[in-house]
Design brief:
elongated, ten-stranded mixed sheet, about 20% helix, four-stranded antiparallel sheet, 6 helices, 16 strands
Length: about 300
């Protein structure tokens, strides 16, 4: 079934442009999705199935029918804080201490299990796509796409520098510079390990930081903005600077007297809606454990 939100009207001067190129240029459809549409016959011109090499006339309408997909996670009654939701996207304020999707070590009680129940209660069916992933002990803005177009389009926006991601972190030690940039490549410390490190042959990784508050010489509250999104990027870069995130067991040391996980929170995400193109902003308030940490440090 085609939907008007995935429609384009051919303009004057575009009669010699193939349907395939119009889908890519005007609707932002990825090559991967085009292959799926081609296999499933999901592209239409004025309501009739059309082949991608064909061309239309000014005023003709191109529509697409996205492939039907669904996830098979076991639904669980897990509390979800919804920041934004529509037919294409779901944005959550993820709580700390929960992984995004089932793994060998966490077969259930994941965000995916909670989203599966949320989806079914709404009478929806889609494949759950975590567009930005957060570590188990990182809280904050978590973006889920309800179709492959959203996932592909967001990746394209990120590659073009059109996505803004901000985090808040409490780090150990006094960060003296008011702001700065860490531009250091990151890769696995050793093959088969989860731990990452700064290494010359790693992937380009850029983190901007700004001091928001200092607590003597012992701790600093930072706002961080990512240009790239490598696994553990913030944690690796800050540890490399000598200021690991408070409570980060992997790159620093535990600090159970102050907080029982790494004090890292994805606070803000901004991008353009993959379908409508309108700006979308999501801000996640600090969780209670980080609020208590800041209160302790200020006292």
């Amino acid at each position: 079934m085609t939907e008007e939100r995935f429609a384009y009207e051919i303009q004057e001067g575009e009669q010699e442009v193939s349907v395939r190129d119009l889908l890519k240029r005007r609707m932002g459809v990825s090559s991967r999705l085009l292959r799926k549409l081609k296999q499933g016959g999901g592209v239409f011109l004025n309501g009739r199935p059309v082949r991608l090499f064909e061309k239309g006339r000014a005023g003709d309408r191109i529509t697409i029918a996205l492939p039907e997909e669904k996830s098979g996670f076991a639904p669980e009654d897990i509390p979800l804080e919804v920041l934004y939701e529509d037919r294409d996207l779901l944005i959550l304020n993820k709580q700390p201490g929960i992984v995004c999707h089932p793994t060998k070590g966490h077969a259930c009680h994941t965000v995916a299990n909670g989203v599966q129940r949320h989806m079914e209660l709404r009478g929806e069916a889609y494949r759950i796509r975590f567009i930005n992933r957060l570590d188990m002990d990182t809280s904050g803005v978590l973006l889920i796409g309800k179709n492959s177009h959203c996932q592909d389009n967001f990746a394209h926006q990120a590659a073009q520098g059109l996505v803004e991601k901000k985090y808040l972190a409490v780090v150990t030690g006094l960060v003296e510079e008011e702001e700065g940039v860490v531009d250091l490549p990151i890769d696995l410390a050793k093959e088969g390990e989860i731990r990452r490190m700064v290494r010359e042959d790693g992937y380009p990784s850029v983190t901007h930081y700004k001091v928001l508050e200092r607590f003597g010489r012992a701790f600093t509250l930072l706002e961080l903005r990512l240009e790239t999104g490598r696994t553990h990027q913030i944690r690796v870069h800050l540890a490399h600077l000598g200021h690991p995130v408070v409570g980060d067991v992997l790159y620093g040391s535990p600090d159970v007297w102050n907080i029982e996980r790494q004090a890292l929170h994805a606070s803000y995400l901004a991008f353009r809606h993959p379908v409508s193109g309108v700006p979308v902003e999501a801000a996640a308030p600090l969780p209670e454990d980080m609020k208590r940490l800041l209160e302790k440090l200020r006292a």
